[in-house]
Design goal:
disordered N terminus, 582 residues, OB fold (Dihydrolipoamide Acetyltransferase, E2P), globular, alpha+beta, Hypothetical Protein Ychn, Chain: A, 5-stranded mixed β-sheet
Length: 582
């Protein structure tokens, strides 16, 4: 169950959520991290081809720095191990903000590097299916292919080390811009070809993993990108002097043709710390390169850390007050990990010794149960209704029990503003991704709609996943997208109802009664003699012998046949059977 199960190469890969901001996505945005604070348009999400305006103010220094840190002063990482299951909770100001689960057989693959074999090329979709050794073939889109690395496992020199090598060509544009000037997939790949890829998105539902050849190896302080000749600085580091200092440190130590993203935790770190991280990541890439030439596809070349160590690497900062673990072995693993990556925080790692389950002590279990409900209550008495459809997630804001004390417009504004914080909290906790529609209560005044929109922008700054938000429409609707790299929390904790198969509805007893009466007529026409029998669930049988007994008697007289009803408790609520016996 320990998180040290990954081999020695598994030292630094992307966290499933943070990768969207500082990991693999960064390599497709070479403009990320300019010397001066970025403009509103920098780093626009290309995940949906510009489906809406980019959220303004995402990278503003005055809100991205001190205000963000102030909002997240008290953070805790709480880890629970039960059998093969490991759960990690991120608490912010005493409230559950994120929950990550690893059940051993359901371990995530994001960040793993594989040598795969192309099993099918689809020119019509400009994509290919690649066998990387998982249950389902993974999906590689043409825009995620970096041509210089397609045959890296066949090279004979040590180009991956960056010694005397030419800088690689710029990577392809994101998906929205790949059609113009982008080589066709059939010109890049062929069936049976072996390529090195990294998992960018875990398998979700019936879909296989999403792959990329743009490798990104996150460390504690930096993200190493062997396919991009660029140095980017995290937007959360907002002081120009510090940005220039960090850029100079990295530029002076990096090899030719490779790139780095300087993560937020680098602020204030000495050059020696960054150089050590760079050297470690470069060696990790060299091991991947060497392994790709020695092993046959499909094979794992580089594994990501386990859940807890990955979370500690990506989430631990000065705002984290403590890391509490209830498993002795994992506690020791975390302590050793902290010695290598954040020695100053080693004293914040504690072993939980209480008799009560750790998640009960910290109030996590109650919040998890609340997060699984379709209805989420607000403190004012209003509530949210959260519904998942095939195409999108719909969130409806309702006034509920709250009646306010002044005008209707003020009451509506107050509920909507309260709902904003809860909506963002639920997006993070449930790991909701894809297209999201938020139906706020209608507001007549434009200035009130702007207040709610700005509040939503501000609340989303605490979310590590990439988001893209449109302004509130006249109908009170907000359309947004949120990047998803793994299954939502409901997929880990819940299963489709075996009774309704996930629809939420079954046929009513009244509907079944009349269907049975009509089926009796059909059976009587097929078999002219004998007694008619009906096997039905108990509640339906009771209804036939209760309020519909007169209908049953009338049908017996009409058919001139006897009807016998049998109540069978093991029947599905919608199941029944009509047959004849002599």
């Amino acid at each position: 169950m320990s998180d040290t199960s990954s081999h020695e190469g598994a030292r630094s890969l992307r966290h499933p959520n943070e990768s969207g901001r500082e990991g693999a996505s960064a390599q497709r945005q070479p403009d990320e991290g300019p010397e001066s604070p970025p403009s509103d348009e920098s780093g626009q999400d290309g995940g949906r081809g510009g489906r809406g305006k980019r959220r303004k103010g995402r990278g503003r220094p005055e809100s991205g720095g001190s205000r963000q840190r102030k909002a997240r002063r008290d953070r805790e990482l709480i880890c629970n191990v039960t059998g093969r299951e490991t759960r990690l909770a991120l608490m912010e100001n005493g409230r559950l903000a994120e929950l990550h689960i690893d059940r051993g057989d359901e371990r995530g693959y994001v960040g793993n590097v594989y040598k795969g074999r192309v099993v099918r090329v689809l020119p019509g979709m400009q994509a290919a299916f690649v066998d990387i050794g998982l249950e389902r073939a993974a999906f590689l889109y043409v825009g995620d292919i970096y041509r210089e690395l397609l045959n890296m496992h066949e090279e004979v020199d040590e180009q991956a080390a960056g010694e005397d090598s030419k800088p690689p060509a710029p990577p392809p544009e994101p998906r929205a811009n790949t059609r113009a000037g982008q080589p066709a997939i059939q010109d890049l790949l062929s069936e049976g070809q072996e390529i090195v890829v990294q998992v960018a998105k875990d398998p979700i539902g019936t879909k296989g993993a999403r792959l990329t050849t743009h490798i990104a190896l996150p460390g504690r302080h930096l993200v190493f990108m062997p396919t991009v000749d660029h140095v980017g600085i995290s937007r959360r580091i907002d002081r120009d002097k510090e940005r220039r200092r960090l850029r100079d440190i990295v530029e002076g130590h990096r090899s030719k043709g490779v790139g780095y993203i300087v993560r937020t935790v680098c602020a204030g770190q000495p050059a020696e710390t960054l150089h050590a991280d760079m050297d470690f990541l470069q060696k990790s890439w060299t091991r991947i390169h060497e392994a790709s030439r020695e092993r046959k596809a499909p094979t794992l070349l580089h594994a990501e850390y386990g859940l807890v160590l990955r979370a500690v690497r990506d989430l631990f900062d000065e705002d984290v007050q403590r890391v509490v673990v209830d498993d002795k072995r994992l506690h020791e693993d975390v302590k050793r990990f902290m010695e290598d990556f954040a020695a100053q925080g080693r004293e914040k790692v504690h072993l939980y010794r209480g008799a009560e389950p750790i998640f009960d002590t910290y109030g996590v279990e109650a919040e998890v149960s609340r997060a699984m409900g379709r209805k989420v209550w607000l403190k004012s008495g209003g509530y949210l209704v959260i519904d998942q459809t095939e195409a999108l997630m719909a969130i409806d804001v309702n006034s509920g029990k709250f009646v306010g004390s002044s005008s209707l417009e003020d009451t509506t504004l107050r509920i909507n503003l309260e709902a904003v914080d809860e909506v963002v909290a639920q997006l993070r906790l449930r790991n909701i991704g894809g297209i999201i529609i938020i139906d706020f209560i209608d507001m007549d005044r434009e200035q009130n709609r702007d207040k709610v929109y700005r509040a939503l922008e501000e609340a989303l700054k605490a979310d590590r996943a990439r988001t893209n938000v449109l302004r509130i429409s006249d109908l009170g609707l907000v359309e947004m997208t949120r990047k998803r790299t793994q299954e939502g929390l409901d997929r880990y904790l819940m299963a489709s109802c075996p009774t309704c198969t996930g629809t939420g509805h079954i046929r009513s007893h009244g509907t079944l009664v009349y269907e049975i009466l009509r089926e009796l007529e059909r059976e009587a026409a097929r078999n002219r003699t004998g007694t008619l029998y009906v096997n039905a669930p108990p509640l339906v049988a009771d209804k036939l012998y209760g309020e519909h007994y007169s209908d049953l008697e009338q049908l017996e007289g009409q058919l001139g046949r006897r009807v016998v009803i049998r109540a069978l408790g093991h029947y599905h609520p919608e199941q029944f059977e009509v047959y004849t016996r002599a």
